């Protein structure tokens, strides 16, 4: 699973939560629109219908400039703008007022907060300073105005329209200008709602545009002072944070990265049939059961990966499926489909090139096929079946404490099985169900290979930390029934607590490593390298650690993922290691993706994560591949960043971040400086404390937009200070002696 779940059924739901996100229901965020009635959230989520249509017409309207961005002009939505209005009485999105084609919103249904006009941008605009539009309020403008409340999305502050419009004119256009700084709370502009806070307003909108301010960054030539203290905040950096999920040319990739751990996981691993060496590819690929690695060797895919890992001297992480079904194949290892078009009828999408009979399980009318037979492409399995996989790996490679497979993962993202594996698990997994499966399968692994490290729960992103699959599927955020039935406790902390209690009562260790998955949710995990997305990549890595940073996506909360995981462990299951076993900030082929990856690796080491495996291994030679090499193989001789983290302080990590570590092998102080600035080079001053005698030399390795790791030096320094200049969008490693 690479991004959070997007349901296919009715209602506007995105990225695993409703339009307001989970912040208000997890006790960690603020309501989306200050003063809005809480019930409005649920009603709007359940009633909303996505209307992503552009409307064409011609009218005299202003033209956007470099200082503005149109949203709706000349009778049409701008590219990247969607109309997600909900529960309106008008069947057409537009109406003509005089000779002008406008947006229309007739909010005649239900009570307060039950309908509204809603425009959504596919990307947030970080430089928006004001929202401007014309509104036609009809014959009773004051009454209509007072019925309208403005909202701007998760984590923002809403306001009544009347705050920005005085003395509205009847049967005429009224111009509105809304300064956005106080409404957006530091976030980008992505949504505008005009909701019925009272009554049933009907109004028309035109000439909707954003005023923009020029993006700012430190001026070229401004010096960034970075303080390094070689005796402060010392702790070991686990080498296992530099892991990946490599599937192709595995040994060579791992060797090139000098990566010490490789994970076999993902959606298909949940349905892997080791006896047949086959997997159902689930929602990733038309729910097809396919032969893996081209042969019938039992567990051939997994054993091949483990063998490649061993060649590269890397540890193996192997997923043990916990679903009740695994893939089966047809005669001569032919592929099978869970949603056969011949059997279940025409479907919205099919594998037209490779298996036209394989559908996506969605009927032409948009409804889900729910009467499929799991036996069509799968066979039953349980923990006794999966015991055979562990035994086979032990027979081939030895027990875990004898150099065999060290880490076993308890399946993958249980909270979204009802979407990713709905052909065999259509009901959202409850808290009790997941706990029971973990107890069964972890007990089996422990009994079979006592020295193995058991990793879980491998849950999906933010929504999957707080809500079980059962609650996610039901979508009643104000009163989630599964969580309510368990004392109102959040899902993942509850699991940790229950697992520890089960361990204490049984005397059997069920979990050694607490693992989660995390992907940034503002389009960073993509190939998009537009300016807005690049700037978000520069900032959103702070969601991994910074208690002062409010995530700018729908999450709209202070994620501080690593401290949060540590706090949960401390409170509910002391002694567990923590792992981030899926993550990615995207843009692998661009230097912006590389600087984000370098930032993440520095954060993982500084914050004391035990294991991390990126999804997936970056392609050989890409900037992001080389970002890994800057930490693990910067000179082609397997030389590495230090293994003892020490304190490094930079004034603005959104622009320039820095990490430092002492290398035990030779005592060198290694400092990684990441200039995220999109356009400006920066002089830097590395101020060293408690290292050496104040003078010495440093070698420098650097990765920039040229996508070459270049070496230079030695640079001599005195006065415990190194002065240098780092290019825009670059990663620079200093090895100081």
The CATH superfamily of the largest domain appears as Glycosidases
Number of helices: 17
Provide the domain count.
4
The tally of beta strands, per DSSP, is: 40
Rounded mean pLDDT score: 90
The CATH topology of the largest domain is what?
TIM Barrel
CATH class of the largest domain: Alpha Beta
Structural class: alpha+beta
Quote the distance from N terminus to C terminus.
43 Å
Poorly predicted residue ranges: 3-65
CATH-defined architecture of the largest domain = Alpha-Beta Barrel
Oligomer: single chain
What is the gist of this entry?
By secondary structure, this protein is of the alpha+beta class. It folds into four domains: 31-212, Jelly Rolls; 224-230 and 644-736, Golgi alpha-mannosidase II (Immunoglobulin-like); 243-335 and 380-632, Glycosidases (TIM Barrel), CATH 3.20.20; 339-376, no CATH class.
């Amino acid at each position: 699973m690479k991004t959070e779940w997007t349901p296919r059924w009715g209602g506007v739901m995105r990225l695993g939560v409703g339009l307001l996100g989970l912040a208000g229901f997890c006790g960690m965020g603020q309501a989306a629109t200050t003063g809005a009635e809480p019930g409005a959230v649920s009603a709007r989520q359940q009633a909303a219908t996505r209307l992503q249509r552009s409307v064409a017409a011609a009218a005299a309207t202003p033209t956007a400039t470099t200082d503005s961005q149109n949203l709706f002009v000349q009778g049409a939505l701008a590219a990247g703008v969607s109309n997600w209005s909900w529960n309106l009485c008008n069947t057409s999105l537009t109406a003509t007022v005089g000779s002008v084609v406008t947006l229309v919103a007739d909010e005649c249904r239900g009570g307060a907060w039950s309908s509204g006009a809603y425009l959504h941008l596919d990307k947030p605009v970080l430089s928006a300073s004001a929202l401007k539009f014309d509104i036609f309020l009809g014959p009773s403008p004051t009454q209509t105005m007072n019925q309208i409340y403005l909202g701007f999305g998760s984590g923002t502050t809403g306001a009544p329209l009347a705050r920005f419009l005085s003395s509205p004119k009847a049967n005429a256009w009224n111009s509105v200008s809304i300064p956005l700084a106080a409404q957006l709370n530091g976030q980008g502009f992505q949504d505008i709602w005009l909701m019925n806070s009272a009554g049933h307003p009907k109004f028309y909108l035109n000439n909707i545009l954003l005023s923009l301010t020029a993006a700012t960054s430190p001026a070229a030539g401004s010096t960034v002072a970075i303080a390094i203290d070689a005796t402060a905040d010392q702790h070991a950096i686990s080498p296992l944070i530099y892991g990946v999920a490599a599937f192709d040319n595995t040994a060579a990739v791992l060797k090139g990265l000098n990566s010490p751990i490789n994970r076999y996981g993902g959606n298909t691993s949940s349905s892997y049939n080791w006896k047949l060496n086959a997997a159902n590819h689930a929602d990733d690929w038309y729910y097809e059961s396919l032969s893996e690695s081209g042969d019938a060797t039992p567990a051939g895919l997994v054993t091949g990966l483990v063998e490649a890992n061993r060649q590269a001297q890397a540890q193996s992480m192997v997923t043990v499926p916990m679903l009740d079904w695994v893939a089966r194949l047809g005669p001569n290892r032919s592929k099978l489909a869970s949603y056969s078009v011949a059997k279940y009828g025409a479907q919205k999408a099919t594998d037209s090139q490779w298996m036209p009979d394989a559908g996506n399980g969605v009927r032409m009318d948009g409804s889900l096929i729910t009467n499929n037979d799991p036996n069509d492409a799968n066979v039953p399995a349980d923990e006794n079946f999966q015991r055979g996989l562990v035994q086979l790996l032990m027979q081939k490679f030895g027990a875990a404490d004898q150099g065999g497979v060290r880490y076993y993962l308890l399946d993958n993202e249980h909270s979204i099985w009802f979407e990713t594996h709905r052909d065999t698990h259509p009901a959202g997994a409850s808290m009790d169900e997941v706990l029971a499966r973990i107890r069964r399968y972890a007990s089996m692994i422990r009994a079979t290979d006592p020295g193995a490290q058991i990793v879980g729960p491998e849950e999906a992103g933010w929504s999957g930390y707080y809500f079980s699959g059962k609650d996610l599927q039901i979508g009643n955020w104000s009163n989630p029934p599964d969580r309510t039935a368990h004392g109102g406790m959040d899902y993942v902390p509850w699991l940790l607590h229950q697992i520890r209690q089960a361990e204490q009562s049984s005397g059997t260790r069920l979990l050694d490593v607490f693992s989660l998955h995390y992907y940034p949710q503002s389009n960073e995990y993509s190939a998009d390298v537009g300016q807005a997305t690049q700037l978000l990549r520069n900032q959103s890595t702070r969601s991994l650690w910074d208690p002062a940073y409010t995530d700018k996506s729908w999450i709209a909360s202070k994620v501080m993922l690593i401290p949060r995981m540590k706090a949960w462990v401390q409170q509910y299951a002391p002694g567990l290691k923590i792992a981030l076993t899926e993550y990615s900030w995207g843009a692998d082929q661009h230097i912006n993706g590389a600087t984000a990856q370098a930032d993440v690796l520095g954060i993982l080491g500084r914050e004391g994560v035990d294991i991390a495996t990126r999804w997936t291994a970056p392609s050989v030679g890409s900037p992001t591949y080389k970002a890994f090499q800057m930490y693990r193989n910067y000179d082609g001789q397997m030389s590495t960043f230090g293994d003892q983290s020490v304190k490094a302080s930079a004034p603005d990590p959104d622009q320039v971040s820095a990490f430092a570590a002492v290398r035990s092998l030779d005592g060198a102080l290694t400092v990684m400086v990441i200039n995220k600035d999109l356009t400006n080079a920066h002089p830097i001053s590395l101020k060293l404390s408690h290292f050496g005698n104040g003078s010495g030399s440093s070698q420098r390795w650097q990765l920039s937009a040229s996508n070459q790791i270049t070496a230079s030096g030695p640079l001599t320094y005195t006065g415990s200070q190194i002065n240098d200049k780092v290019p825009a969008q670059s990663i620079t490693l200093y090895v100081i002696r």
